[in-house]
Amino acid sequence: MKPSGYSHGIETDGRRTIYLAGQIAADAGGNVIAPGDIVLQFDKALANLQETLRFAHANMTDIVKLLIFVKDKALYRRHLKQIGSIYRNYFGKYFPAMSLVEVSALFEDDALIEIEGIAVVNE
Asked: Does residue 1 belong to any structural domain of this protein?
């Protein structure tokens, strides 16, 4: 199955920029998993980003910028240790530039988190 939400950008100086559309904790059928569980949703959103990057022949450590949208910043903070552990499973000790933004709603009602990014791949 082709992952949803990526587009190729400009190739210059042997580099390819990939703009990653926002990923939520959706399964292959488009259903949000684990309603109410921000930790499991964070894990699934990152898994969806990783699958998108694989399809584009790129890796998580090619990401140079992550933008994380959450419906509840306090909930995110309460689970920061668990979220950090999951983050390290995908990125190790690699840290792209990141922003966290609390929003009043996401497109899918059960989604607590959405993650988008920009990756730069040296060809």
From this structure: no
Is 71 contained in some domain?
A: yes
Total count of domains within the chain? 1
Secondary structure (DSSP) of 49-112:
HHHHHHHTT--GGGEEEEEEEES-HHHHHHTHHHHHHHHHHHHTT---EEEEEE-S--SSTT--
C-beta separation of 60 from 53 below 8 A: yes
Q: Is 85 left (phi over 0), alpha (psi -120 to 50) or beta?
A: alpha
Q: How confident is the model over 35-86, as pLDDT tens digits? A: 999 999 999 999 999 999 998 899 999 999 999 999 999 999 999 999 999 9
Is 39 within a domain? yes
Tokens of 118: 């920009």
Is 94 within a domain? yes
pLDDT per residue as tens digits for the range 82-95: 999 999 999 999 99
Pairing of strands 97-102, 6-12: unpaired
Domain extent, residue 65, equals: 6-122
